[in-house]
Design brief:
The chain is α+β, with helices and mostly antiparallel strands. It folds into 2 domains: 364 residues, no CATH class; 192 residues, Histidine kinase-like ATPase, C-terminal domain (Heat Shock Protein 90), CATH 3.30.565.10. The chain has 15 helices and 17 strands. The strands form 4 sheets. A 5-stranded antiparallel sheet has the order 2-1-5-4-3, sandwiched between helices. It starts with 6 loop residues before the first helix and ends with a helix. The relative contact order is 0.08.
């Protein structure tokens, strides 16, 4: 090993050795930290994106459930039985068309609907059927949504109808526009790639490339056993990142087995990291070069005090007296280390700030779980029914249809999200007029609304589902009374819906998410409470008080909204 004789040479060697070690450690640390950071950033970003897609796709499947609920409601039982008893195919098709139109068929979601019975198939328009295997699997279920297949860029969801209320049996097949699934799976936030839906068996449900729909996904693109892990592969000579995530909400709510596969552009994410790494390398190399220069320059200055110290010591030895005060040299190494520490602190502060900003961007807002209806189609249909009832001299039917049209006009309210309390009360009264026609003098409803709050705006369709819930469950046979109150305390609004009906023992999970059958056939307290909680915060929502034989009281707590919140 080479020996360094001069202090200057030794200092430069030690200084450069330390500098090289620090430089290498920083390079390794930066690379490791950047790799971990970008990987976690991609995971979190994709997780949020896939959660948004899951929410959107679930809302579309909800439309199938809502349409089926409307088709099989009690008002349509007679029409369902007519379809079952009719022997003429053309007449059956006309009755089926009438049933679907009456149930609120939304062309924005559905391209076709068919009914497969033991004897024949009834279509809105002619379209291919799923494979026999899929139809047989569907027949083994009962009143439960099943993801059958994908045909001609259409997602086919079926439900085997087997109800006690009608003699008609068979499988309804709902053909949903595949482009709708694609548009929901590829939002602007996913501009660096695309996502598609796959079943657990590898069957591709939806894809931007329509040629791949209905086929089995290739190896290396689907990892159901390694959810949220990043896999890098090549597609057409371009590096891509594959991330597989479970559609938890859709699978939990409808017992599906669907996954989202997100394909991301490798360069869009790691390219930025590589560029940043190169910049940091250049900076570190510049600092290293500066350190070498400073080591040479500073070493010269550091040897001067040592030489002066030697001269002073020689003079003390020669004279026996201290001739001058020796000053300590400045600690340049400490200053250099301090500069490095400050630089790393700045880097990590910027990284933490960037992470927080990305978390804020990933926060999403769940939208109100209310069914959207095409108003022009609905109004025209109801007007046509009222006109036919008038011609047929059926005043009761005409009155019912006109009241129903008024109810829908009030509930839709031009698509507004918020309405005044007075408007919400008018909506309830419109609904009660319809109920009174069906069940005359069965339930008496009274209103007590504080005058000073009638112009306050609230989220629409909150009060009517609660009143409907009381009418449906509180008085199964006997008549009764319902009181509706609205008042304010400080900055909060309160609504009370109280009945003297049969009552019940309130379960602890009454406001928890319900099973699929309840979602198919009702709006539910859960949906109302969830909308309030998401719009107003965790401190607001529903409370249910009830006891068997003593009636039920449901309270709604809301917050007064400022003008800027409503806008």
């Amino acid at each position: 090993m080479r020996k360094f004789k001069s202090i200057k040479t030794k200092f430069i060697a030690i200084y450069l050795g330390i500098l090289v070690v620090v430089f290498l450690l920083m390079l390794i640390s930066i690379q490791v930290v950047m790799q971990l950071y970008i990987k976690n950033s991609i995971k979190n970003n994709v997780k949020g994106l896939q959660s948004d897609i899951d929410e959107s796709i679930t809302s579309v499947v909800n439309e199938v459930a809502y349409l089926y609920a409307r088709i099989t409601k009690s008002d349509n039982v007679e029409l369902l039985n007519e379809i079952s008893l009719e022997t003429d195919s053309k007449t059956k098709a006309v009755l089926f068309q009438e049933l679907i139109n009456k149930s609120g068929f939304n062309e924005d979601y559905f391209q076709n609907i068919s009914l497969v019975t033991e004897d024949e198939v009834i279509f809105l328009s002619n379209t291919p059927l799923p494979e026999e295997k899929a139809l047989l699997s569907l027949k083994e279920t009962r009143n439960r949504l099943v993801l059958c297949t994908s045909l001609n860029n259409q997602v086919v969801i079926g439900i085997n109808m087997d109800l006690d209320t009608t003699i008609l049996t068979g499988s309804f097949l709902f053909y949903i526009n595949g482009e709708l699934f694609n548009s929901l799976s590829n939002t602007p936030s996913g501009s660096y790639g695309y996502s598609f839906i796959v079943r657990s068996d590898g069957f591709i449900v939806s894809h931007l490339d329509s040629k791949l729909i209905g086929k089995t996904i290739a190896d290396g693109f689907f990892y159901p056993d390694k959810l949220s892990e990043l896999k890098v592969t090549e597609i057409e000579s371009e590096k891509k990142i594959i991330v597989t995530g479970e559609m938890k909400k859709l699978n939990l709510q409808y017992n599906f087995d669907c996954f989202l596969v997100s394909v991301l552009d490798y360069d869009a994410f790691y390219g930025k990291m590589i560029t940043l790494e190169r910049i940091l390398y250049v900076v570190l190399l510049a600092i290293f070069a500066l350190g070498v220069t400073l080591a040479v320059l500073r070493s010269r200055r550091l040897t001067l005090p040592i030489s002066s110290l030697n001269e002073s010591l020689d003079e003390v030895i020669a004279t026996g007296q201290k001739t001058k005060k020796i000053a300590k040299p400045g600690d340049e190494i400490y200053q250099l280390e301090k500069n490095y520490d400050e630089m790393m602190d700045t880097i990590f502060e910027l990284m933490e700030k960037n992470r927080l900003e990305m978390e804020m961007q990933r926060k999403y807002e769940l939208y109100a779980l209310q069914m959207q209806v095409n108003p022009h189609f609905l109004y025209n249909t109801l007007d046509a029914i009222a006109w036919m009832a008038k011609i047929k001299k059926q005043p009761e039917i005409e009155k019912l249809v006109l009241n129903l049209a008024n109810f829908f006009r009030l509930s839709l309210h031009k698509g507004d999200k918020y309405v005044t309390i007075n408007h919400e009360v008018e909506l309830v009264k419109a609904y009660l007029e319809i109920y009174e026609i069906r069940f005359p003098d069965k339930v008496k409803v009274s209103f007590q609304i504080e005058e000073g709050i009638v112009t306050e705006k609230i989220l629409k369709l909150l009060l009517q589902p609660i009143v409907e819930n009381s009418l449906k469950h509180a008085f199964p046979e006997e008549s009764g009374k319902i009181s509706v109150k609205a008042y304010s305390i400080d900055n909060d609004l309160y609504f009370e819906v109280k009945d003297d009906g049969v009552g019940f023992d309130v379960p602890e999970d009454i406001l928890a998410i319900k099973n699929q059958d309840e979602i198919l056939h009702g709006y539910g307290l859960f949906n109302v409470n969830e909308r309030i909680r998401l719009e107003y915060g965790e401190d607001y929502g529903l409370k249910v008080y009830s006891k068997k034989g003593a009636g039920t009281k449901i309270t709604i707590k809301l917050r007064k909204l400022a003008d800027e919140e409503i806008k």
